[in-house]
Specification:
With 79 residues, this protein is mainly alpha-helical. Helix content is 56%, strand content 0%. It contains 4 helices and no strands. It has helices spanning 11-25, 30-36, 44-49, 55-70. It is globular.
């Protein structure tokens, strides 16, 4: 779909954009951002102690991301 719309980006670029935005524009902890991207914690000790999926905090972060994306910046898609 991205290619069909003539957007010069790849899907992984959207994930990277989200991560940059979250780091620069929010106060969300790194752990929340990484879980929002479905990244797995490879540190076995830390993973053993992390019992929460931080779902509520991830939901809030994704709502902020949606609001950011919905802003009208005057940009138009080609076509």
């Amino acid at each position: 779909m991205v290619r069909d719309l003539g957007i010069g980006a790849v899907p992984h670029g959207f994930r990277s954009s989200f991560r940059d935005w979250a780091a620069e524009r929010t106060d969300a902890p790194r752990e929340v951002c990484e879980l929002a991207l479905a990244h797995v914690n490879r540190d076995r000790v830390e993973a053993a102690y992390r019992r929460s999926d931080l779902f509520g905090r991830r939901r809030e972060l994704m709502e902020q991301w949606a609001a950011f994306l919905a802003q009208d910046r005057g940009a138009r898609l080609p076509g």
